[in-house]
Structures are given as C-alpha cells and as structure tokens.
Design brief:
This protein is of the alpha/beta class. The chain has a single domain, classed as 2-Layer Sandwich (Transcription Regulator spoIIAA). The chain has 4 helices and 7 strands. The strands form 2 sheets. Strands 1-2-4-6-7 form a 5-stranded mixed β-sheet. The protein has a two-stranded parallel ribbon with strand order 3-5. The longest helix is centred in the C-terminal third of the chain and has 19 residues.
C-alpha cells in the first residue's frame, strides 16, 4: 500500500495512493495508522482522493480505526471520497459511521474544532 504521511502540529494527513483499497491491505493500513496513536500528535486525516473502489472489509476496517481514535479522544476524519466510493459507503451504511469531509481543508478544520471542543471539555 502506497501512502504519504504529512505531519502537522495538531494532526497527520495520510494520503493513500492506490486505486483500490482492498481487504488484503487492512493489516498494513492498521500498522500504518494505529502507530500514530503512540505519537504526541494523535489526530489523523485520511485523504482518499486516489481511491476509486473500497472493498467491504477495508471499509469496515476504516470504521474500526475511526472508533479506536475516538475511544482515546483523538480525531479521525476521512476526506476527498470519490463519487463511487461515497455512493458505496452510503448504500452500505459506512458513511454515517465515519467523520468525512469533501476536502482536506475542511477535514483540517474539523480536527481543529474537535481539539477546541476537547479543550473546553477538560476545563
């Protein structure tokens, strides 16, 4: 699985450079993404702009990753879903289980807002 990880002050942006997110990629996806939970910067944005198709097992794994991040008060946002992927996620009920945005910029804004909400929640 080809990925690019860009680390910013408050989050990581992981861009997956594959046309298909296949079931056999879930282990590598887990290793790549869950490792970030050990970092000081835990919030993660997954940019899926290159992905044209996602197999069900991989989509289910994205939901599990999403839940793992929120269980420890870290953000996990998926962005730039291609129309066919978004349609497949909507029809399978996956989309309603994920935080997603149309653009990477909006995903960054969402992470920043969730960070502010967590800070207010702690005070």
């Amino acid at each position: 699985m080809l990925v690019k990880i860009d680390t910013r002050e408050k989050f990581h942006v992981i861009t997956i450079h594959e046309a298909v997110l296949a079931a056999n990629m879930t282990e590598k996806m887990d290793r790549t993404i869950l490792t970030l939970l050990d970092d000081n910067v835990k919030n993660t944005i997954v940019n899926m702009k290159d992905i044209k198709m996602v197999e069900k097992a991989a989509a289910d794994q994205l939901v599990k990753l999403h839940d793992s991040f929120y269980d420890i008060n870290a953000s996990f946002v998926v962005c730039e879903l291609q129309p066919d992927v978004k349609k497949a996620f909507e029809s399978s009920g996956i989309l309603e289980k994920l935080n997603y945005t149309p653009t990477e910029s909006e995903a960054m804004d969402m992470v920043q807002m969730e960070e502010i909400e967590r800070e207010f929640g702690e005070s």
